[in-house]
UniProtKB/TrEMBL annotation:
It comes from Ceratodon purpureus (Fire moss). Residues 182-203, 376-439, 458-516 are annotated as: Disordered. One of its GO terms (cellular component) is cytosol. The lineage of its organism: Eukaryota, Viridiplantae, Streptophyta, Embryophyta, Bryophyta. This is CP-type G domain-containing protein. It is found in: Cytoplasm.
Length: 516
């Protein structure tokens, strides 16, 4: 097949596939999430799958099932029945050991090969950052299935799996060759064996190839850099950094291949969920309240308030007291606490939404999904930690002051005499005369101390106020306004009266004329 024929066939197959998805969306009334529509990116995936012996699907350990694509696994089996796909749960340092154990149990029951891994921890070990890499030292070998693997362990396991696959393919190729010999004779088989050794290109060169595929922004390039030991591929928090696949030689027996991230079509998720998951770029989103509402529904109210240091508005009396905060409440509270105001004078919700989403993607606002057969309540690490911290704080507050203990101490000292020689027990008698019991005396004096402290604070606040300038203290007295126009009870109709002066009529001129 010529390259032109291959290009034409790929274009026709791709258009047929997209046309089928559009018809399914229209006929079944389903909403299809945004997916990769660039044929060149899909070609990069096809070339990687054709070359590799082992396909490693990198997923985010906080929600592995969202990033797993069963259709991709089926396509790998269609290419070669002997080829295998393995899940690599990146960012596993964000999960507790118990959470990893539950996911390991679930994946085992489903028959899915998996490995726990953290590119961030592996990079920290290479750079010598002990405070970040300490999580690996804390892991114990009592449960090997839930341990976060180190760099050498991961390389050894993937190399062994790829070599086993290559050996299986070689045996299958020899079996098919022997069958061909029996059918067509030795002449045809000899020519075939000289032109086609029956083993993949990686085996012909003596190396096995392991390809890393998956959604954007799950850590494929970071994993490659950590395994190689130096920065070979570009890494950024924006999805879609890698545009072309590249191969990297690790040793004489192992080669790695980094594939660009692809967004696969799905009918089960929404665009807001894809933005909150980091699949779509955060800086290019147009609707910011939708993804923030996804975060608000997952992260508890107490975790949001303790992380950012603000107080969210409480639900109305007629609302559910346990409802999650709305996107508008969360964005306005964050923007006002950080002083982020737009040009219109309102809280800058767009800027606040980007910051909150990036904190959610980086793990500052931690939320981890539980396996389908487990309960979600209390599964995330930070949720359990925040509740425990709150309980400890409550215990400490209770131990700070106990009225009964204070009264016992006073009663214990009541037997001793004071400086004046009078028994100190008279204080309790005075309390009885006032009608106050011994157990309530501490409360009474505590209230008095509180009033005294409040008065001192007000006095200190008054002293700290700056004195006003003399020209501001002595102001002109306000001019008294003339309000005589108002209606009074003098019997008038309230209409303004005009000042009319009636002059006396002069008849002098008329008398002069008559006399003439």
């Amino acid at each position: 097949m010529t390259p032109q024929q291959l290009d034409l066939n790929e274009r026709q197959s791709f258009l047929t596939w997209r046309r089928g998805l559009a018809e399914l969306e229209d006929n079944e009334k389903l909403v299809l999430t945004p997916f990769e529509k660039n044929l060149d990116i899909w070609r990069q995936l096809w070339r990687v799958l054709e070359r590799c012996d082992l396909v490693v699907m990198v997923v985010d350990a906080r929600n592995p099932l969202f990033y797993r694509c069963p259709d991709l696994e089926a396509y790998v089996k269609e290419l070669d029945p002997n080829r295998k796909t393995m899940l690599l749960l990146n960012k596993s340092d964000l999960l507790t050991r118990d959470a990893r154990h539950k996911w390991a149990t679930y994946l085992k029951e489903q028959g899915i090969p998996y490995m726990f891994w953290s590119a961030k921890v592996a990079t920290a070990i290479l750079e010598g950052k002990e405070e970040v890499a300490s999580i690996v030292d804390e892991e114990e070998a009592d449960d090997e299935d839930a341990v976060v693997l180190e760099r050498d362990e991961l390389l050894g396991r993937v190399q062994k799996m790829a070599e086993d696959i290559a050996e299986t393919r070689r045996i299958a190729s020899q079996a098919s060759l022997s069958k061909h010999l029996e059918t067509h004779g030795s002449t045809l088989a000899k020519g075939k064996s000289e032109t086609d050794p029956g083993v993949g290109s990686s085996s012909a060169s003596g190396r096995v190839m392991v390809g890393f595929v998956g959604y954007p922004n799950v850590g494929k390039s970071s994993t490659i850099n950590a395994l190689v030991g130096e920065k070979k591929t570009g890494v950024t928090s924006t999805p879609g950094k890698t545009k072309h696949f590249q191969t990297l030689i690790i040793s004489d027996k192992l080669m790695l291949c980094d594939c660009p991230g692809l967004v696969f079509p799905s009918f089960t998720t929404s665009r807001s969920e894809m933005v909150a998951a980091g699949v779509l770029p955060v800086d290019r989103m147009t609707d910011h309240r939708g993804p923030i509402q996804v975060v608000a529904n997952k992260v508890p109210r107490a975790v949001l308030e303790s992380t950012y240091g603000f107080t969210l508005p409480a639900p109305k009396p007629y609302e559910n007291p346990n409802r999650p905060p709305t996107a508008a409440e969360l964005l306005r509270a964050y923007a006002m606490s950080r002083g982020q105001v737009a040009s219109s004078g309102l809280p800058d919700e767009t800027r606040a939404s980007r910051t909150i989403l990036k904190d959610y993607l980086s793990g500052k606002l931690l939320f981890c999904y539980a396996p389908p057969n487990e309960e979600q309540a209390g599964f995330s690490q930070r949720i359990g930690t925040s509740s425990e911290v709150g309980d400890e704080d409550d215990d400490e507050d209770e131990d700070e002051f106990d009225p009964e203990e204070g009264s016992d101490d006073e009663d214990g000292e009541s037997g001793s005499e004071g400086e004046d020689g009078e028994p100190s027990g008279s204080g309790s008698m005075g309390g009885k005369l006032l009608g106050v019991g011994d157990s309530n005396m501490a409360d009474v004096f505590g209230d008095l101390d509180t009033l005294t402290i409040g008065a001192d604070l007000r006095a200190s606040k008054t002293k700290n106020q700056k004195e006003k300038a003399p020209h501001k203290v002595h102001r002109k007295t306000a001019r008294k306004k003339d309000r005589s126009w108002r209606v009074t009870n003098d019997g008038s109709d309230g209409m303004p009266s005009s000042g009319v002066v009636q002059k006396a009529v002069s008849h002098g001129a008329a008398k002069v004329r008559l006399s003439v």
